[in-house]
Amino acid sequence: MHIPVLSDEVIKFLQPENKKIYVDATIGCGGHTKKIFSVAPKCKIIGIDCDQQAIDYCEQYLHQFLDQQNLIIVKDNFVNIKEILKKINIEKIDGVIFDFGISTLQLRSSRGFSFNDETLDMRMDLSLPLTAYDVINNLSKEELTKIFLEYGEEKNSKLIAEKIVEYRKTKNITSAKELAEIVSSVLKQKRKKVYLKDTGQQIKYKFHPATRIFQAIRIFVNNELKNIYYGVNNAIDVLAQNGKIITICYHSLEDRIVKNIFKSRKDIKILTKKPITPQTKEIMVNKSARSAKLRAAQKI
Length: 300
Ligand SMILES: C[S@@+](CC[C@H](N)C(=O)[O-])C[C@H]1O[C@@H](n2cnc3c(N)ncnc32)[C@H](O)[C@@H]1O
Known about the structure:
The chain is an alpha/beta fold. It has two domains: 7-105 and 224-299, 3-Layer(aba) Sandwich (Rossmann fold); 129-219, Putative methyltransferase TM0872, insert domain (DNA polymerase, domain 1), CATH 1.10.150.170. The chain is 43% helix and 19% strand. It has 14 helices and nine strands. A seven-stranded mixed beta sheet has the order 3-2-1-4-7-9-8, sandwiched between helices. α2 (31-39) links the parallel β1 and β2 (44-49). The two termini are 37 Å apart. The model has no long low-confidence stretch (mean pLDDT 95). The protein binds S-adenosylmethionine. S-adenosylmethionine is lined by residues 2, 4, 26, 28-32, 48-51, 54, 77-78, 99, 101-103, 124, 227.
C-alpha cells in the first residue's frame, strides 16, 4: 500500500543491526520499520505516530514484531521522544528516522488532505483543537494571507485569501473539494519540472493549483514546523555515540529546518553533504517520492 520513500538509502545510512535500538518517529504505514526489520530482524524499534489510524494500521500490519516484542508502538507526538523513551526505560538509541509529510493512509482518509475530499479537517492527530474548517471559515483575510505566504510560499496569497473571505459571505466552506475549487478559480494549473540526476532526465508533472494552499493549512493546523524543530533536536539529544539520525523532507520549509539544525549542532557529524534524492526508477514507481530529500547525521 504505502511504498516507503528512499528506503534503500535509509538502510545504507542507518546500517541497522540486531539488538540495537531504533526509533521510527513517523511510523505511518510501517514501511520503513518493516524494511529495517528485514535487515535486522532482532533489533528493537519504537514506532511513534500521532495519528490513531496509523497506530491501528501498524498494529495489524506489524503484529508479528509486536508479538515477538521487538516492536513497541506509541501514539504520541514525536516532540515527546525523550518522555516516550523514559517511560519504557530506554536512555539512548542507536538511530532515529523521521519521514515527514503525509501517508497514503491519510491521503485516503477523507479527512480533507486530498483535493476531492468532502470534509475539511486536515488534523493528523484528531485531539488537536483546530481543524482546517475552523481556519478557513474563521480567520481574517490578513491572517489567511500570512499563513498562505509563510507556510505555502504562495505568491498569490492575498488574492486567494480575498476570494475565500468573499465566498464565505454567502456560505461556509465545508469541504476540501470546495476549497480546491475556490483556489482553482483564481490560479491556473501549473507544471513542475524535476531534474533526475542519475539519468539526466527531466520529468514534468501537473501541480494542482491548490497544492501550496493545502500545504500551508496542513502545516498550520498540525503545527508541523515547530514539531520538526523540537522533534529533531530532542532526537539528537537521545542518540547514543555513533547513533544516526535520518530525515526525509518533502518541501523546502521542512528541509531548511533540518539543514539548519544539522549545521548548528556541534555534537553531530553530517553524513550527507548534499541531500540525497530518489533515483529515476524509484520515482517511476512511486510518484510521491519525487520531491523527497534525505539528510543523515551521526552523533559524535
Ligand atoms: C510520510 S508518513 C510516514 C510513512 C512511513 N515512513 C512509512 O514508510 O509507512 C508521516 C507520518 O508521520 C506522522 N506524523 C507527522 N507529524 C507527527 C508528529 N509530530 N508526531 C508523530 N507523528 C507524526 C503522520 O501522522 C504520518 O503518519
